[in-house]
């Protein structure tokens, strides 16, 4: 191995950290890659190009390395400088997919693996064995998207009502209203508790039992912050904190951000923040947050994490969890609704059972909605907090912020964050006060039930029971 050449290749910057949409950020955004996976793919691309430059025979990239190569070819100046550094003009030769080409590229792939193992050691499976980053999750794609399953379930729900009416009516008329109500209240509570535990367990398993080389085990702290808060501004706040610790910036007397220097810069996020401070006169914390959270270096967190969530939602394993939720919660809703319908057909009071049906239906919708929007991010966060962060927390302050939130911030920044959140809260209260005052209901309106009102001596309103 030519260590001197490799050190230069490894250190070669494909773009500047201050580029707001340079090579690296564009590569991540267009391919929906995470920050760490993008860095790994670029490193493997450099290794491949080193092999191409030092070998007298043809070498072949993986599909992911080829994506990086194609992107670099677009940045012609950077690519030409890279080839000059390598000492060889490396041409990209596309396959024509004929028989001779197939054999040529097969041999090149075998040679690449051999040279790589001799030079760098074992190839990372996530880059060299898979076609896309998301293939490392090894999740079979579902035949139907979740919303299609939900729509089909709703249609089936109403189609079954006429048939269930004739099947359940002879049974329901022999069950007392009181017994039915108590049984379904208990069943409903038990179902909610059990189904939530089931959901948490299954989602945890979907994340845990992946390929050990999967990118899901190597998320950046800022990406996990986005999963927790659904807002990229947490990454901006964390970057401010790093810059304060490094003495690049400080909080001024008027609660503004004051620029000091840019002699120490650890990552792209810091570079972009300092560039914004240098190039503009904006110093207000709130204004800076609003500007910076639109920068690609931060929005890429949202792009990659939303794609991850969508990919998990579209998996066959998730669909299995969703179907169990629909069968259990939809089944309870269906059985109570049938009680209402049968009660109406027998001219029985249905008030209480109708209320129970609405409550069960709303809770079913809430649980299924939470499963799709909240439970997966919570499952990923739980997995990280239990298995990954404890090993990394000492290496990186950012992980402490993921776990501890604002308590991990510098005191000066913490006071600013609290002040900003208070201002947001006050503004929200002012916006809603006019609406609440006009819609408030006086206690003298006479809408309450008087002490003389009575609900009857029996459990009327419980549907078509035998009472």
From TrEMBL:
InterPro entries: GRDP-like. Residues 431-457 have a biased composition (Low complexity). Residues 458-467 have a biased composition (Gly residues). The keyword Membrane applies. Residues 428-467 are annotated as: Disordered. The chain crosses the membrane at residues 148-167, 173-195, 321-344, 350-372. The keyword Membrane applies. Keywords: Membrane, Transmembrane, Transmembrane helix. This is TIGR04222 domain-containing protein.
């Amino acid at each position: 191995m030519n260590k001197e050449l490799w050190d230069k290749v490894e250190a070669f910057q494909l773009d500047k950290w201050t580029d707001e949409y340079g090579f690296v950020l564009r590569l991540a955004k267009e391919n929906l890659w995470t920050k760490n996976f993008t860095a790994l793919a670029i490193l493997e691309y450099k290794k491949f190009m080193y092999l191409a430059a030092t070998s007298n025979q043809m070498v072949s990239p993986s599909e992911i390395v080829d994506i990086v190569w194609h992107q670099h070819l677009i940045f012609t100046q950077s690519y030409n400088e890279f080839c000059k550094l390598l000492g060889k003009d490396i041409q990209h030769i596309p396959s024509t997919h004929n028989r001779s080409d197939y054999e040529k590229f097969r041999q090149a792939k075998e040679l690449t693996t051999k040279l790589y193992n001799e030079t760098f050691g074992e190839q990372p499976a996530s880059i060299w064995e898979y076609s896309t980053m998301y293939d490392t999750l090894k999740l079979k794609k579902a035949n139907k998207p979740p919303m299609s399953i939900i729509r089909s379930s709703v249609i089936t729900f109403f189609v079954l009502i006429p048939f269930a009416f004739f099947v359940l009516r002879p049974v329901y008329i022999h069950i007392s209203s009181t017994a039915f109500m108590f049984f379904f209240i208990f069943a409903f509570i038990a179902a909610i508790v059990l189904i939530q535990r089931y959901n948490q367990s299954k989602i945890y398993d979907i994340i845990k039992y992946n390929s050990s080389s999967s990118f899901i085990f190597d998320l950046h702290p800022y990406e996990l912050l986005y999963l927790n808060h659904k807002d990229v501004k947490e990454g901006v706040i964390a970057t401010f904190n790093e810059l304060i610790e490094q003495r690049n910036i400080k909080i001024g007397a008027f609660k503004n951000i004051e620029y000091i220097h840019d002699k120490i810069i650890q990552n792209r996020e810091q570079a972009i923040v300092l560039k914004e401070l240098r190039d503009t006169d904006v110093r207000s914390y709130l204004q800076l947050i609003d500007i910076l959270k639109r920068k690609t270096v931060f929005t890429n967190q949202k792009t990659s994490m939303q794609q991850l969530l969508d990919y998990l939602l579209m998996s066959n394993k998730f669909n299995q969890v969703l179907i169990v939720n629909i069968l259990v919660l939809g089944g309870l809703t269906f059985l109570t609704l049938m009680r209402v319908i049968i009660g109406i057909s027998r001219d029985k009071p249905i008030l209480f059972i109708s209320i129970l049906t609405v409550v069960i239906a709303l809770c079913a919708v809430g649980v299924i909605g939470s499963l799709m929007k909240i439970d997966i991010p919570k499952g990923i966060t739980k997995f990280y907090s239990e298995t990954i962060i404890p090993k990394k927390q000492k290496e990186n302050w950012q992980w402490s912020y993921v776990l501890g939130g604002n308590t991990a911030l510098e005191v000066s920044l913490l006071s600013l964050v609290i002040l900003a959140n208070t201002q947001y809260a006050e503004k929200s209260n002012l916006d809603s006060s006019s609406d609440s005052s006009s819609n408030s209901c006086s206690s003298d309106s006479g809408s309450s039930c008087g002490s003389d009102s009575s609900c009857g001596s029996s459990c009327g309103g419980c549907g078509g029971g035998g009472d």
